[in-house]
Amino acid sequence: MSAPAADEPLEITVTVNGVPRTASAPARRLLSDFLRHDLGLTGTHVGCEHGVCGACTVLVDGEPARACLMFAVTAQAHAVTTVEGVGDDPAAMSPVQRAFAECHALQCGFCTPGFVTTVTAYLQDHPDPSADEAREAISGNLCRCTGYQNIVKAVLRAAELRRAEAGA
Fold first, then answer.
1. pLDDT for the residue 7
2. Fold of 9-86
3. How many Å from the N-terminal Cα to the C-terminal Cα in the chain?
4. Superfamily of 90-167 according to CATH
5. DSSP SS3 for 133
6. Which position among 89, 117, 128, 155 has the lowest Cβ density within 10 Å, counted as fewest Cβ atoms?
């Protein structure tokens, strides 16, 4: 029996935002394209398609990963969290999402999903970052609009909101 051709569709099942999702896609389908086109989760944005800009950042087993550099088939045994999984209800936003809104840490919004997933993961392990640590944490994500000052403020505010929730 021969191996399937690279463009021959496969049934790919990925646990996304806690839900197993299955779609038929070629073995070489990128995770970013699988999420957007095959599963209809358009919150993950595709910017540079080279893993440089961070717009496509999702969490794979809780760790930030560039969805444009990963094949969907390799995600099958892992838990993927997109920005929709961080929070998709405007009435119940995550601390990171609330902080981005409060601190005006977005303008066009294209890079925001990648920042939100990156910061969400970062704050799990670093609940009380300094401004310099926040800058370092977001250094792998590019934004063309904000100048980063408000994004750094949002990271610090999100940490504050998370601490307040944990103490409540």
1. 76
2. Ubiquitin-like (UB roll) (3.10.20)
3. 60
4. [2Fe-2S]-binding domain (1.10.150.120)
5. helix
6. 89
